[in-house]
């Protein structure tokens, strides 16, 4: 039994899609989340820089207050760039979102035609391509970088027609192909799943890599006998969400997506790492 | 989302083994439990009588206060005697413990030699035998009635040597056979799993039918979008445990097994059904 929170990190609000699945599947687990909104998007950045940011965040969560019992890198770009580094440097289990997405896609596809949409960084890393090929060398993988979908989510745009137009445009290369499975290879994308499904058609199954990662989290908690106790239960009013950017838009998206009130605090981020802002 | 409790019923404390799994696997679900200790053991009773008792309990749980959203018949004898009757008469999903135990045993056995220990009533019903045969006609099933294990659990005996002697004696027909899987076909028996494992040896895998039933409960909650919300969370101080027998021994076993404080109330049981005792 371990009552510490599970930590989550992302370049912004995308990792909230993994948190939403965790609140559903592991409701009795506290959440500590860092969205590095100041330095987003991660996609166009150098691998070493993304890995460094991810490690700063992991260290902040691990070393502050009671720490965390497990870290989810709820960001595909940061997983591709930094998973081994964080696993090496942090004294807790670290889970990424790519391998769970790969395994779910391999289970889902019936015709072995799989699409991947992700940031440029994730596409360039070939992490999904390599993972899928390792699982089934006969698979046909179509990877497309769709960076505008990240900024679309973070913009909190509400005009449905405008959102659909951006999504359809970004997916142009995949529409009309034979893929029966599409990996949402960026944790921001499930926030656009309706629009993506609409653009792709019902014959395509969307794989939510961030949500799949929660199965691995559950397994690690069980293997380590590390679930939160039931007496007392976790209290989600004690969960903490941090952003390195502006509190208000982050809170707005988080509360709308998670459908609960959330407490958001501001973190200063610089070359030396993260620290809580004085006014908080 | 449905914040009502899940109901559990048993002839005594045995169903607490299913509750323990639920508290672990579905921590955010309230519990309402009835142990019909006054009228236990169910094993030697006529089928119609057991089915009637089970229906009385189901109706009490369903009709009192906020009711329940699902009933687990956490008792093999009552499942064999009354599952279809309760499913027909109660307006909520009703889950038994036999089919989940059958499916787990079929998944577990490697040599198709499966043992079943249960009450006389469950053995006579052939519910496990029929279920196993329907799943795999090539299976070899050895059923043994071990009613003394029920009274052993309810007696709350603490002398380890004495407990082991009773268990080894009751299992005599199975010890030394080729079975590689043993279904604990009575929810009381997991409370003796250490002694049963000791008597059978490590080559035999024990199947906890009551715990397996919680997988089916989880699936039904998901299919009906009926999990308890996370804001606020369930509070296990609000869980209720009822017994038709003496409060003190029930509470002692329940708190020792579940490892949390429990509130126990007394129910009057007669031919007209169940009702809360005046003094509560």
From TrEMBL, chains A, B:
Detail which positions bind substrate. Answer: 10-11, 42-43, 76-77, 187-188
The record's catalysed reaction(s) read:
L-glutamate = D-glutamate
Work out whether the entry's keyword set contains Secreted.
no
Task: Copy the pathway line from the protein's UniProt record.
Answer: Cell wall biogenesis; peptidoglycan biosynthesis
What Gene Ontology terms for biological process does this UniProt record contain? cell wall organization; peptidoglycan biosynthetic process; regulation of cell shape
Which HAMAP family does the entry mention?
A: Glu_racemase
The record, for NCBIfam families, names:
glut_race
**Family membership noted in the UniProt record:** Belongs to the aspartate/glutamate racemases family.
Q: What is this protein called?
A: Glutamate racemase
**Organism expressing this protein natively:** Weissella viridescens (Lactobacillus viridescens)
Q: Which gene encodes it?
A: murI
């Amino acid at each position: 039994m371990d009552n510490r929170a599970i930590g989550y990190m992302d370049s912004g609000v995308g990792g909230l899609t993994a948190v939403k699945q965790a609140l559903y599947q592991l409701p009795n687990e506290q959440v500590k989340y860092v969205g590095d909104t100041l330095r987003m998007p991660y996609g166009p950045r150098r691998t070493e820089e993304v890995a460094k940011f991810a490690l700063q965040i992991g260290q902040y969560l691990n070393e502050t207050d009671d720490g965390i019992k497990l870290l989810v890198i709820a960001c595909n770009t940061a997983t591709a760039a930094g998973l081994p580094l964080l696993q090496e440097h942090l004294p807790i289990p670290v889970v990424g979102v790519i391998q769970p997405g790969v395994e779910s896609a391999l289970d889902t596809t019936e015709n072995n035609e799989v699409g991947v949409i992700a940031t440029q960084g994730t596409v360039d890393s070939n992490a999904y391509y390599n993972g899928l090929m390792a699982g089934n060398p006969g698979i046909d993988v179509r990877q497309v970088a769709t960076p505008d979908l990240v900024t679309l989510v973070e913009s909190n745009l509400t005009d449905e027609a405008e959102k659909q137009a951006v999504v359809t445009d970004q997916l142009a290369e995949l529409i009309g192909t034979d893929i029966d499975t599409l990996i949402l290879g960026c944790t921001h994308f499930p926030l656009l799943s309706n629009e993506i499904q609409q653009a792709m058609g019902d014959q395509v199954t969307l794989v939510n890599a961030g949500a799949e990662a929660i199965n691995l989290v559950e397994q690690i908690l069980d293997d380590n006998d590390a679930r939160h106790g039931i007496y007392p239960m976790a209290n989600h009013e004690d969960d903490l969400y941090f952003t390195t950017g502006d509190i208000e838009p982050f809170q707005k998206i988080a509360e709308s997506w998670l459908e609960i009130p959330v407490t958001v605090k501001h973190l200063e981020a610089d070359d030396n790492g993260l620290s809580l802002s004085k006014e908080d």
